[in-house]
Design brief:
alpha/beta, Alkaline Phosphatase, subunit A, 2 domains, two-stranded antiparallel sheet, disordered N terminus
C-alpha cells in the first residue's frame, strides 16, 4: 500500500525566536555536515556497564508472508488452499517446511518457529502498529500513536546512561519506516537509517568517518567556528541546554572521526566467500551488514526485505492483482532462504547466539484460501495485465515468525493452526507477547517500564502480554 506524497506546506515567518529555539537553530548552522543535525535532540543509546551486551536483529517482510507456502505447510488440504509446493524434512524430526526453504531446513535446530502468532488488524498500517508497538486499534492511521519497540528500547537505553560505543545504538538497514516510528518520543529516538544498497560496489554510508585530509580540515574549521560562537554565559543556561548541545555535537564528531564507525559499515573487510554465502544481492548484503553492526556493538538493527527482489510490487503483499503468488514465491524465496540461513549460521558460528536475537516476521500472514483475480500489470512474479492469476490476501488471524539465538530454546515449533491454516488452535501468541519477549531479551523491565505520552500520562511499554516462556525458558 503506497502512501501518497503530501504537498509541502507554504513557508511561514515564525516571528522572533525564543532562546531555546535560537539554540536549536544555532546548532543547525554547524549541521551543514548533517551529523550534528542528525544527533540534535537524539540521545545516544546507552547501556549499563554491568548489563550483558544483548542485541536484536529484526528482519522485516513488509506486506506479510504466506505461512502455508513457507513455514506452516498444510499438504493434506484441498486444491482451494494448498499451493504447488511439496514439503521437505528439516534436521529437527517432525518439523517440515516447504521446498522453498532448503537452506533453512538444514538449520532448523538453530531456530524456533512460532506458528500461532495472531493479531486483529487487517490493514498494513494497523497490522504493523499492532505487532511493533502494541497499538490494538484496528483502524489504519497515517502515523503511529505509540512508539515502536525499537524506539522504546533506544529511549530506555539512553535513560540508563553510560554508553561509550561511538556507533548509533539503533540502525535501520533499509529501515521499515512507512508505518512505524518513535511517535511521542520524538525524532531523537528514530533510527539511524542506511537506505542505500550495500551490494553496490560504491556503497558508502554518508557522514560515517572522514574521507580524507580535506574533510578533516573542513571539520576542524567548523569546530573552531562553533567554539568561537559559544560565548553565551553559562549562568543564563538554566535548563542545561548548552551542555546538551555539547553532548550531541560530541556524538556527531565521534561518529565522524572514530575509525570504528567506518569499519563497521565497510563490507569490503568481509571475506569474499562470506559475502557469497549471504548472496551477492541487496538482501544478502543487508543481513551481512546487520551482523557486522551487532558485532560492533549496535544493539538494535532492523532490515526490511523489499524492493525488486520481492517481485513486481516490491513487497510481500501477494494479492492476485499484484502477483501470481506461486510464481513470485519461486522468484523471491531463493535469495530470502540464502540470506536468512547465512545470518542464522553466522550468529552461531561466531559465538553470538547467546546475546544476539534474530526475529524474522511480517505484520501478518496470507489467506489460506487461494483467491483469483486479473493482474494489473506484468513483471517479475506477475503475468501481463489482464491475466487471471492466483493470490492470497491479508490474514491477521494466524501467521508464523522465526526466532533464532538470544540464548533461547531452539529447534522446535511453538503453537499450531488448524488443518486449513486459518485459525490458531494451540498456544496463541499476541503482539504484547511478541514485544515482551524482545524486551525480556534486552533486559528491559517490560512489566513496569512506562513512558510519558503527549499528554504527560505514563504509558506502559507492554500492556497485557508476557514473554513466550516456551521460547525464553
Amino acid at each position: 500500500m503506497a502512501t501518497p506524497n503530501a504537498s509541502p506546506a507554504p513557508a511561514r515567518c515564525p516571528g522572533p525566536l525564543a532562546r531555546r529555539e535560537f539554540m536549536r537553530v544555532g546548532l543547525a548552522g554547524f549541521a551543514t555536515l548533517s551529523l550534528p543535525g542528525l544527533f540534535r535532540l537524539r540521545a545516544a543509546g546507552a547501556a549499563q556497564p554491568n548489563r550483558p551486551k544483548t542485541a536484536v536483529i529484526m528482519v522485516w517482510k513488509p506486506g506479510g508472508c504466506s505461512h502455508l507456502d513457507t513455514y506452516d505447510p498444510k499438504p493434506d488440504t484441498g486444491s482451494e488452499y494448498r499451493g504447488p509446493f511439496s514439503t521437505i524434512a528439516t534436521n529437527v524430526p517432525g518439523t517440515r517446511l516447504t521446498e522453498l526453504l532448503p537452506m533453512q531446513a538444514k538449520l532448523a535446530d538453530k531456530f524456533t518457529l512460532i506458528r500461532s502468532m495472531k493479531q486483529t488488524a487487517g490493514g498494513h498500517p494497523a497490522g504493523s502498529m499492532q505487532l511493533l508497538s502494541g497499538d490494538l486499534d484496528t483502524r489504519d492511521k497515517p502515523k503511529p500513536r505509540l512508539p515502536d519497540w525499537m524506539s522504546v528500547a533506544h529511549y530506555l537505553r539512553a535513560k540508563e546512561g553510560g554508553r561509550t560505543n561511538p556507533l548509533p545504538n539503533y540502525v535501520g538497514v533499509n529501515a521499515p519506516l512507512e508505518y512505524n516510528g518513535p511517535a511521542y518520543l520524538g525524532d531523537a529516538y528514530s533510527t539511524f537509517a542506511v537506505q542505500d544498497d550495500p551490494n553496490q560496489p560504491r556503497f558508502e554510508v554518508p557522514n560515517i568517518g572522514l574521507g580524507g585530509p580535506a574533510e578533516s580540515r573542513r571539520l576542524g574549521d567548523r569546530t573552531t567556528l562553533r567554539q568561537s560562537l559559544d560565548t553565551l554565559e553559562r549562568a543564563f543556561d538554566k535548563e542545561g541546554e548548552l551542555g546538551a548541545l555539547d553532548q550531541f555535537e560530541a556524538q556527531a564528531l565521534t561518529l565522524l572521526t572514530n575509525p570504528k564507525t567506518r569499519d563497521a559499515f565497510d563490507l569490503s573487510k568481509e571475506d569474499p566467500r562470506t559475502r557469497d554465502r549471504y548472496g551477492r544481492n541487496r538482501w544478502g548484503q543487508q543481513l551481512l551488514l546487520a551482523r557486522r553492526l551487532v558485532e560492533a556493538g549496535v544493539e538494535i538493527v532492523t532490515s526490511q526485505l523489499s524492493g525488486p527482489l520481492c517481485g513486481r510490487t516490491g513487497v510481500w503483499d501477494d494479492h492476485a492483482v499484484d502477483h501470481h503468488i506461486f510464481d513470485v514465491l519461486r522468484f523471491r524465496m531463493g535469495n530470502y532462504d540464502q540470506a536468512v540461513a547465512a545470518l542464522i549460521e553466522d550468529i552461531y558460528a561466531r559465538g553470538l547466539d547467546q546475546r544476539v536475537l534474530v526475529v524474522v516476521t511480517g505484520e501478518f500472514g496470507r489467506t489460506p484460501k487461494i483467491s483469483f483475480d486479473r493482474s494489473t500489470g506484468g513483471g517479475d512474479g506477475s503475468g501481463p495485465a489482464g491475466t487471471l492469476q492466483p493470490g492470497r490476501d491479508h490474514w491477521p488471524q494466524a501467521f508464523t515468525n522465526l526466532w533464532a539465538g538470544g540464548g533461547f530454546r531452539m529447534g522446535g515449533v511453538i503453537g499450531a493452526t488448524d488443518k486449513l491454516g486459518e485459525q490458531v488452535v494451540e498456544r496463541p501468541c499476541l503482539p504484547a507477547d511478541f514485544l515482551a519477549t524482545i524486551y525480556h531479551h534486552l533486559g528491559l523491565d517490560w512489566q513496569n517500564a512506562t513512558i510519558k505520552d503527549f499528554s504527560g500520562r505514563p504509558t506502559h511499554i507492554v500492556s497485557g502480554g508476557s514473554p513466550i516462556t516456551e521460547l525464553t525458558g
